């Protein structure tokens, strides 16, 4: 529909011309009423670029297999990446796997469920080919501004014009556009009423009326006059109004007055009168055309007047009359056959006129839900003009026209919302498909034309010509070729008709040049893509498959093998599912050709295997050729055109019962004993059309030590096979005759107890590279028919000897009844066998006192109780399994660990630190877990020899478990032993050993005067002595002895990963390595004064440390506390034999800051009565802010009296400020009054910023000894 003129597709709107007072035209057009109609609407202007992009974008479906248009300039997708993607996708469909590659999922058809509204008032839109059907709100009148005398004069007709006139064409190309855009049916003349009341003031108005009437007289255009006044009080009986009415010679009701203040009311009245006149105009035009029909003798004029009557009726919304006269015009057209038309020009013109008329008729039928009439009209239309009349060189254009007709009708069916879609089976699918079919015919008939004229110089000079995207552009008559495409339509003159005849060959060469630029594949795929979308809506799977095959063939013709392969492959899936073997055979053969041209050897092998299947309908000869080509891919690719070869081994995943080659396996028995022999059978059935030689047969088991390999002869796979070979003949090669089944037997020597399963069987074709046919036996073969044991190995209970004797007897019976299966018959396929040992009767125990503590050599006593026969030898292995962090038990243990983390108290408020377990023990690079024979790291214990053990006797051995992390250690002890009767048995048991911290530590910092460190909001101060109190609480179920505790100061690398510190230097000033700088200095500890202490459950142990932090940082740990402890041995007060363990506890991370205020108190060591002494306090402000302080001095009373011991000079109460990086000194003079030990005055200095007293002045218990005054 894009090539049809827009005025023909949409409903015409009556046109009214506006003359005079142009500033009112906009207000009238703005306030015209609208009506609601459902009609076609173009989405974008028609242009070569727009149409091209619209063709490529408007019909791309959401379905991954819907046709996607490929531009003519777009190269075929044959890049290695794209080929690899497609090849992997197809390999996955063909059950082919390549090493180190994972195939993408197979293409699957998506089912679209779309519902379309059949109501004309539906708000949904149907968009097709740049058009859409939508509920529109067009104006009831279309207005256009024209000048006085702006209408072109109509050429006067001669007497008896209809009888003698011979038209050059049927319908003028610009006639529709002229009546819808430039030639109005009514002219509205706006006159400004003059204020001057003189008799001559209205002469200019009369002149305008005369000029307009003279201009519209020949066109039968109706006139209405609007007199614009500035006042609402108009004297309608004024003589000047009477003169205007007489001069206009129109009905007085069509002369109306307009006051600009009442514009909206005026427009409603004006448009009502205008509609009456437009209807009258078109009605008279219809009558005039009817009168001309009776006088006309030439069929062209009859067709023309019928067309005009139908189009005029559309202006009047008389659709029944329009349909009637469009049908009359079409019947008149079909009844006239051109004579003497060797060039086919008249046929082309009539064909185009018929196309316009057919579109109108079908549209009206479909719009009124008369689907059957529309179908009959279209079929009659195609039947009348299907046979071409003209030169053979132009026949391709005829097929282009037929394809366009089918496409337009399909678009009408798709977009007309009133159409009952159930009345048209399949909807527009057939018509889109037929349009694609005739596009193929167009390409076919143009081929020999292009071969003849493509290199002609006459064609080359039009190589820049562009196709016409509007069938009326540049033409004089519809259907005739344009005389000159450079001339606009309105400037066409009759002289161009002569140019058309003189330069007719140029038009032919131009059409060839344009046709050479056509991408037929894009056109065909676009049409088939629309049919695919409609078939998807109707959910007709068979039609979908058929359309997909057409799209695939088109891509194959255009050498776009990658796109063709996608559609062929999807079709193959459908045909295989529906068992349409003939269609599947053709589709697979096309797939084989596609992958051959795309050089995809893996996919080639897959499709070749499918085509070799005897289920398909290809002949034995064709299958033999495919088998030979398959071998050439592996051996000699030069014999293929184009060459294609396999460069790497290819694994082909085979089904259990593949129609080409299948495999079956069997363990003859379900149970075997260890250290014995059993058989394993493999049956391979081949249905290759010719004898074939394989290279190797492999059986892969769950235990690689059981894998078996059978090599064939050393000949090449393409070497001739001896014709003397017979089926069912015993031979050692891997040659298979057609439809032959062969049995291969493998002898297995059983080992230890296990469930042995055959996982896969691999049959190799060729070598370096090879095609490996892989059967995943574990997916379909049954397991052992014995009931599997659900109990864990280490929890199994000993069985009685009677069952063991029964098992041995059953094994002997099985060996005596060994029967090979018949390869041509069905047999029980068993892929696994259970290898059993003699049952173990030994009992394993572990004696210990839980729980174990981190870094402790945990003592465990192993005890073996022999309930079996006398043991001569054996071994014990220890396997320490990794803890299962994801178990609920471990999560509970982690929550318990958080409660055991060290805490720190600031201002008597405990704060729990948040380091993880690995952070607590970060000094160790890796957590240590092991079993040791002694309480040392000298050697680990992994195996232990078992000595001679008598029946009913026991064996004991002590070993140690060491773990440096909190977990649930799982220790599995495996015992293998041999009895006196040479019976080998195995036993295993697992034990859980929980590991905990065992001690809850709490840390608290104090100042040197034993006051809590609460000055700086939880931080401690660098370069000032601190006291650290460590409280240890024991929560173990047994008693322990703490020998001592030590504190190790961390360096920077141990304290934190990102220290906030300045570079340190040694005493000489040389810079040190920052990672080795200690974060503090330990002054003293209380360990020397504490003796070993015994702790019971919930007992406490405390120790003190005096240290100085040296480095500042946001999160630093000053060091680690190590607890030296041992278990208290019952009955031994000395505890000499107990093992001392070390438990390191990392100090919590603290914020260490610089002291904002450095306070130094200077006072003499003693005083003398009556001798003044100096007392000073020096405060340094290390912050970046101005700090304010308050001073309050309290002089305490002396002992035994009420007088103060000192008199002092200086401020008692006051405030002062210290600037950043500045020092302030407070001086007082003390005069001792009494000899003895007296408390000094309390100099209380409080920081206003922190609202706390300075620590140096906080202690009120400072004394000074005053000596008596001794005179000489």
TrEMBL record:
One Pfam entry name: Foie-gras_1
Compositional bias ranges of the Polar residues kind: 74-84, 95-107
Domain Trafficking protein particle complex subunit residue range list: 346-613
Feature: compositional bias, Low complexity: 108-123
Residue segments, region Disordered: 65-84, 95-127
PANTHER family membership: FOIE GRAS, TRAFFICKING PROTEIN PARTICLE COMPLEX SUBUNIT 11
Protein name: DUF1683 family protein
